[in-house]
Amino acid sequence: MTEYLTSYGYAFLFVVVLLESTGLPLPGESLVMAAGMLAGEGSLSLGAVFLTAMVGAVVGDNLGYLLGRRYGRNMVVRWGEKVGLGERRFAMVEKRFEDYGIWVVLVARFIIILRQLNGFVAGTMHMSWPKFLLLNTISAALWAGAYGLGAYIFGAAFRVFFAEHGTWPIIVIAAGICLVGCVGTYRFLFRDEAEEPGIGESAPVEGIKCGGVGREGGHGQTTDSIEEDRRKRG
User: Which residue among 28, 114, 155, 188 has the highest number of C-beta atoms inside a 10 angstrom radius?
Assistant: First the structure.
């Protein structure tokens, strides 16, 4: 996508980052890094790259928030199972937001899957919009600065490395980081699945009540106590 970035500049960067933040699987991070490298060459302004990436991220996340707040629950019920995020799994995601809400919003932009779900889930849960906007803006600024400024500073070293070794080592490293991020995020969001009884299993009980009455005395005997009485009489 670098050629499009060179041709269309900040507008292309803004649109890609916005759409990725809304939930589409686009290479926003890679594009911000490419823009940072171009800024290091003098083709783009570093300040403009930073502002474009940050504003695109904030606008995209807030569009996701509005979408989740207005249509989130209905969308999960109707379409969730088709993308592996049915009501049961979505409830697990909501539980993580309840437990770690502030931190999830702050770090979600740096983590694949969470980056796409961040605004939508916050909106579905009706998180306070001013609170979400503040945390999301801080996160977007840190993200744009880390990738844009990092590529700007180390851009010359990257170009030398690419000239000597090609781009395949970076692709392999990026794929590895992406895989680790996906697995880690999946385990974080859906770890409750491993703790729940499997289909057809039931939770252990101490004894089944007879006649639907209590454990204590008379008709409150359980099957265990009945068997014990039978052994004594026998």
Answer: 28
